[in-house]
Specification:
Blueprint (H helix, E strand, L loop, with lengths): L1 H17 L11 H7 L12 H7 L5 E2 L3 E3 L4 E8 L4 E7 L7 E8 L16 H8 L12 E6 L2 E8 L2 E8 L4
Antiparallel strand pairs: 1-3, 2-3, 3-4, 4-5, 5-8, 6-7, 7-8
């Protein structure tokens, strides 16, 4: 009997690892959105500070570098107010080379997501473009969470239109 239990357990693990068992609601991989999504030419994975400087033409205002215990990184806010862009830039060591941790876009940003959503677009367009990725538990009136608050795209609305877009982890 123990052999059958072991065999069943191994088959179950192998099936889960291979994706043989589909989720009950057949939702897309929520973290896949985080990996593939962009706001304009800005993305999270692999975008260095050197690349950021070539992609945003506005004047940069850097905040103070702070240690975030939750992530174990030194984080600095980079604001581009004339472009409506704010970035959280992180490094494993104080003063080290940084990478993009999160992206926030608001007015007057002309940037759009990969699915064509930008500041000022109607809430219905967000629903159409990102509906399959919606986290219904975390979304609320005035806010649409695509993916997860642990890594996703969050839209904030004012008067039924996109007022802000946030790409990254909003919770730990």
């Amino acid at each position: 009997m123990p052999r059958y239990s072991l065999l069943y357990g191994l088959l179950l693990v192998a099936g889960l690892a291979s994706g043989a068992f589909a989720a009950a609601d057949d939702k897309p991989d929520m973290f896949a959105l985080l990996k593939e999504e962009q706001i304009g030419d800005l993305r999270l994975l692999g975008l260095t500070e050197k690349e950021v400087k070539t992609k945003i033409p506005c004047k940069l205002k850097k905040g103070k570098e702070e240690f975030w215990a939750a992530t174990g990184e030194f984080v600095q806010k980079w604001d581009y107010p004339d472009c409506g862009i704010s970035l959280n830039m992180g490094s494993g060591r104080k003063g080290g080379a940084k990478k993009v941790l999160s992206i926030t876009a608001k007015k007057p940003s002309p940037l759009k997501t990969k699915r064509g959503i930008g500041i000022g677009d109607p809430e219905q367009e967000v629903m159409k473009a990102y509906g399959p990725y919606q986290d219904k538990e975390m979304s609320q009136e005035g806010q649409f969470v695509a993916g997860s608050v642990y890594g996703g795209l969050i839209f904030s609305f004012e008067k039924g239109r996109v007022a802000q877009m946030f790409l990254g982890a909003a919770a730990e």
